[in-house]
Design a protein that fits this description.
Elements: H1 2-14, E1 17-20, E2 27-30, E3 36-40, H2 43-49, E4 54-60, E5 64-68, E6 72-75, E7 80-84, E8 91-96, E9 102-106, E10 120-122
Parallel strand pairs: 3-10
Antiparallel strand pairs: 1-2, 2-5, 3-4, 4-9, 6-7, 7-8, 8-9
Length: about 160
Amino acid sequence: MLVSSLNRRVEERALDWTGGCLCGAVRYRATAEPIRAVHCHCGMCRRESGAAFLTHVHFPIAAFAWTQGEPTRYQSSAEAGRGFCRRCGSTLTMHETVLDDRVQVTLGSLDRPEGVRPQDHVWTESQLPWLKIDDDLPRFQRISSAVPSRALDGEDT
């Protein structure tokens, strides 16, 4: 019985994804496995993050909750908004109208980012020329075929 109880707790923890911002003012929890994770090389993600690219991890919205505070949202385009901590400025989320069944959190905001395996690279036509990534993941010049997007209706999201 003790082993069964321990196994159940281990399984529950495996589905318990937590994260938050640098200062701790905003925290979240997801209780389902990620739907997908993607490396985005678009110019907007670079500007938002201050990094060469940004990795988004998608969780079902029904299994996601803010446990402390909530991010401030910036509407970065007609189809997408981005969330950040008002206090420390940490990049936390992206929200696309066409993907309203999920929350996209930044990989770096997860407490256990090593547990996520990205599936592909998108917007590689915008990838910085000096950035060389040696992985076998699929690469898409613009959007992935894995999810719908309205990014091509205007600017990248």
